[in-house]
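Fill in residues.
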């Protein structure tokens, strides 16, 4: 009896020893496998860092339907005529060359019991750790009269690529003196200054090509990111052109009619020529299918971006409900590096560093007139918490604004190399 008990205790002690040691494991298929769903700012970065840093010890599969990723960041500059579409497109060849198994397909489901991801093209991919970075989808019924069937008549242009090109084509086809309308989204949403940078770029284009045209923004919010900076810039460069209708003035009570091309704000109907509807957002649908969302977003632990619903699933970028960071490409890239370090540590026993995050959001208001807002963050038990921040000031010199714009150019080159490899 005593011997048996000792043997049992011995086994237990050995097991505890194993638990205390780095958790190196693979679910019965050779080396540990990481599957990443979504090859954007979060997913491409995480896949590249795990493959690069694990030096072949971890298998990495990236599931991404598109062969060319068009960044949303700088897509407003394409609308304003500062960038070509080709400059925003990036292929996955560099990731494949650095050892990531790139599968061009949609992930259609996650079986958390068998730890597999189902593919639209058939079959499934097994994982030990799954990273979801699917970006955003739109909340159905968020804007009365609009759904995905209306997106060609009234584009959102809030996912990169064809929607951005469509919006620009519509802008260029606007008759002289007509109206461009934007329906802005409620918080929280992808890229807080994005709608207002876009309005600046639309105004820049119209000022040169269609100077009597007007812009209306219907906004469900009472205030918006970098508001003082944008309002100063609009007054200086686009006086009389932009009419922002915030929630106090009915900007949240909006309906659209894509057949009639009308926008109704608080019951007042206006004919519009372009209607850029950016609806309320939620985590990309695969996060819901995986069962890791609570409401519209996927709650995560701040120290490693693991899901609060499943310790073997991690959620990055826009889809994650993480705390204080804005939903930006910079944030997604920063979160991906923390996650990659933690996942590699969990799978191979490599050193895991304390989580630190940072973000900067640049916006272009007019030629060489760049502004920025940013912060650093740390992980707490509760959330990713802001440590300190900075923001451009109103009334800055033209020289400083030019430097800020040049900084953003450098950032774009840097982040895309960080995501896809040089
Ligand atoms: C107009 C605009 C301007 C912006 N400007 C800036 C900026 O200046 N700076 C900045 O930092 N951020 C900016 N952003 C925000 C930035 O684009 C996003 O925050 C960032 O892309 C989020 O990264 P992500 O990895 O969460 O999602 P994404 O980069 O969108 O990547 C998601 C990927 O997942 C894929 N995917 C989705 N579902 C599935 C599935 N089921 N199976 C497989 N793949 C799937 C998609 O195809 C996509 O490639 C801007 C956004 C917009 C719209």
């Amino acid at each position: 009896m005593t011997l048996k008990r000792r043997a049992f205790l011995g086994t237990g002690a050995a097991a505890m020893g194993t638990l205390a040691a780095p958790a190196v494991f693979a679910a019965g298929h050779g080396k540990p496998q990481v599957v990443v769903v979504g090859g954007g700012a979060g997913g491409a970065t995480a896949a590249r860092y795990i493959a690069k840093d694990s030096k072949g010890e971890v298998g990495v599969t990236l599931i991404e339907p598109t062969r060319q990723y068009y960044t949303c960041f700088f897509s407003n500059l394409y609308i304003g005529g500062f960038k070509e579409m080709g400059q925003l497109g990036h292929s996955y060849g560099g990731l494949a060359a650095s050892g990531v198994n790139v599968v061009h397909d949609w992930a259609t489901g996650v079986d958390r019991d068998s730890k597999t991801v189902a593919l639209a093209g058939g079959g499934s991919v097994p994982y030990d750790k799954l990273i979801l970075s699917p970006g955003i989808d739109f909340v159905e019924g968020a804007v009365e009269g609009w759904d995905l069937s209306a997106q060609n008549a009234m584009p959102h242009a809030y996912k990169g690529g064809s929607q951005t090109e469509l919006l620009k084509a519509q802008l260029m086809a606007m008759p002289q003196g007509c109206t461009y309308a934007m329906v802005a989204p409620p918080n929280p949403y992808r890229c807080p200054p994005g709608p207002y940078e876009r309005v600046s770029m639309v105004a820049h284009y119209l000022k040169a090509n269609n100077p009597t045209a007007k812009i209306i923004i219907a906004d469900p919010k009472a205030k918006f990111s970098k508001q003082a900076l944008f309002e100063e810039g609009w007054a200086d460069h686009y006086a009389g052109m932009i009419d922002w209708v915030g929630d106090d003035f009915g900007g949240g009570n909006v309906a659209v009619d894509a057949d009639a091309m009308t926008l109704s704000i608080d019951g007042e109907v206006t004919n519009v020529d372009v209607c850029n509807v950016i609806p309320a957002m939620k985590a990309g649908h695969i996060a819901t299918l995986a069962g890791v969302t609570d409401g519209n977003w996927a709650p995560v632990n701040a120290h490693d971006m693991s899901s609060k619903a499943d310790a073997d699933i991690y959620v990055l970028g826009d889809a994650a409900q993480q705390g204080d960071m804005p939903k930006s490409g910079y944030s997604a890239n920063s979160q991906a590096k923390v996650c990659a370090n933690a996942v590699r540590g969990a799978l191979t026993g490599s050193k895991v560093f304390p989580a630190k995050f940072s973000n900067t959001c640049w916006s272009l208001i007019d030629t060489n007139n760049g502004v920025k807002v940013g912060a650093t963050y740390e992980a707490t038990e509760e959330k990713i918490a802001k440590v300190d921040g900075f923001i451009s000031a109103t009334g800055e010199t033209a020289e400083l604004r030019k430097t800020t714009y040049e900084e953003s150019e450098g950032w774009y080159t840097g982040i895309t190399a960080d995501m896809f490899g040089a």
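The two ends are 65 Å apart (CA to CA).
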